[in-house]
Structure formats: structure tokens, C-alpha cells
Amino acid sequence: MTGRLPLNPLRVFDACARHGSFLKAAEELNITPGAVSRQIKTLEAELEVRLFDRFNRAVRLTESGRQLATGVRQGFLTLQSSVDAVRSRRDAPLVVSVVHSLAAKWLVPRLQHFQHRHPDVQILIDASDAPADLARDGVDVAIRLGKGPYPGLHETHLIETMLVPVCSPDLLARYGPFETPHDLARAPLLHDIRMAQNEPTWPEWLAAAGAPEVDTGTGPQFSNSYLAIEAALSGRGVALAQDAMILDDLASGRLVKPFSVTLESPFSHWVLSLPEKADQPNIRRFRTWLLDQAAADGLPRRD
């Protein structure tokens, strides 16, 4: 036997070998006994060996038949296992690891749009600020804040990070009006200590706005951007926030921007995947949707 494998005759042969009967094989495969007999004859002719001894009501494997049956059965089991594994992976949730603040303030509120576009794709959001080990943790897509590049990973730039002060209308009424950035000296400033480890913070923004003398040494501190924004929403002070995190609160009027001065961060949000998985259909669909959503929200990104 050279060239292609005669898969259909082998499938019929496997059923006959398991049942010891052409009739029972025909019933399993939902074909006629005559069709079974023809497939076996075709296989015997191609292999140039007799595979069965025929009797009136049964068949029995020859020595060659037994040898072939063992290999064919193992081969079909291996194929079935591989197909089941792929099918299981296809039906498994798409695991998306994303930093807590971006998950809560931007991604999760928009997921309904992805589900509407792809209702058959299940998403599992894993909110984590830790570095993502995609292979070890079984992560399909990670969204992380950084400078890039990410050696060994498929990377797509998602959002440039712009920083802008925000506060609640109530705080603006109590401490305002803020006519110049110098007026922030009389309002509490909220501090994201995680931002301070990576991104520009109040001193950098105030310097860019022309008010470097404003004291930034006081004010409540928070462990991530989400908490700082929540504090701003409750009127605790003025937060320096990433623009992606405040879109919905600005649109609803829950937050306002007392100044239009924005400060570009050297860090961006990136979409990361293992190179060997980057073109899997669901990963590609999710990545495309993320880019479309960022564009729809008017968020800046690199060309």
C-alpha cells in the first residue's frame, strides 16, 4: 500500500474486526452488508492479503488480519483522542488575563459587545496585576501595561496611555472653581502607588501643566487605579487617571475633568498571546474586537 491511506475501507475493516461479523458492522456503520463486503474486498486487493476467513454466518480474522486490526484500532483511538482534545479546546472558555483596573473600568463593561458579535465564544476573565506566564497559567490572551517589546510572545499594541486629572462634580463645587492648575493646591490629591512604580504621577503632570510648586506629598494613597478612581467618584479628592479608565464615568457625568492638560505615559496596554496560538480563531476574533473597541472609544493607539 503506497500513497494515501484507504481510510474508509479501514474504518469498515475495524468494525468487522471488532464484531466478527459483516452484518453487525453494517448495522453499526448504517450501510448494507454488500457495501461492507465490497470495502473489505477493496482493502484485501490493495494489501494483496486475505484479512478474513469467511463462514456462513461469521468471519474470522486471519493472521494478517489480526496484525492489521491491532494497528488500525490503535490508530483510530489515537485519532479520536486528538479530535476530542481539539473539540474540547474549541469549546473551552477563552481565558483572558487583564489587570484589575482595566478589567473593571473598561473591558468588562464592554464585553457584551463581543458576546453579541460572537455569541458562541465563552470568555473567562482572570483579573491579575502579576506578570502573566501564558503557558504555565493556561492564558489565551493577556492584556498588560508596559513598554514592550515582549520577546517570545505575539504582541499587538492596544492603547496609548494618557493621564488626566478627574474629580466628582461635588468636589469641584466644594474646592473650585479650578481656574489654573495652581488651584489644585487647595484640594486633596489622590495617589495610585502602583502607578508611581511605573508611570508619571502628580509631580510630572503638575510640571507639564506649569504648576510644579503644588505640594503632592499629602493625600490618600491607593494600591491601584480602580480604587483611586472610586475615591474620586465618592468626592475624596482629585485622581490622576488613565483616559481608558474614565470614559464611562465622564460620559455619565459622575466625573469631570477640571483641566484639559493630558500627559502621555511611556507605558501602553498590549495584547499578548503565545505565538503558536495567536492565530487560533477565537484568539484572533477577540484581538480584533479589542482593537475595534479601542477605536470606537476614540482611544489613542500606534499605527
Describe this protein with a few key phrases.
303 residues; 6-stranded mixed β-sheet; alpha/beta; rod-shaped; 10 strands; two-stranded antiparallel ribbon
What would you note in describing this structure?
Helix 1 (7-19) packs across helix 2 and helix 1 packs across helix 4 (63-91). The protein starts with 6 loop residues before the first helix and ends in a 7-residue tail after the last helix. It has helices at 7-19, 22-29, 33-47, 63-91, 100-117, 134-137, 169-175, 193-198, 202-208, 225-233, 247-252, 281-296; strands at 52-54, 59-61, 94-98, 123-127, 141-146, 154-166, 191-192, 221-222, 239-242, 263-273. Helix 5 links the parallel strand 3 and strand 4 (123-127). It is of the alpha/beta class and 303 residues long. Helix content is 46%, strand content 18%. A six-stranded mixed beta sheet has the order 4-3-5-10-6-9. A two-stranded antiparallel sheet has the order 1-2. The protein is built from twelve helices and ten strands. It is rod-shaped, with a radius of gyration of 32 Å.
Can I get a quick summary?
By secondary structure, the chain is an alpha/beta fold. 46% of the residues lie in helices and 18% in strands.
- Which assembly state applies to the chains in this document? single chain
**How many helices does DSSP assign?**
12
Helix content class: 40-55%
Spans of 5+ residues with little confidence (pLDDT < 50)? Answer: none
Radius of gyration: 32 Å
The major pleated sheet works out as: 6 strands, mixed
Approximately what portion of the residues adopt beta-strand conformation?
A: 15-25%
The main sheet orders its strands as 4-3-5-10-6-9
Secondary-structure content class: alpha/beta
* Cα-to-Cα separation, first versus last residue: 55 Å
Gross morphology is rod-shaped
**H/E series, N to C?**
HHHEEHEHEHEEHEHHEHEHEH
Count all strands and give the number: 10
Mean pLDDT: 90
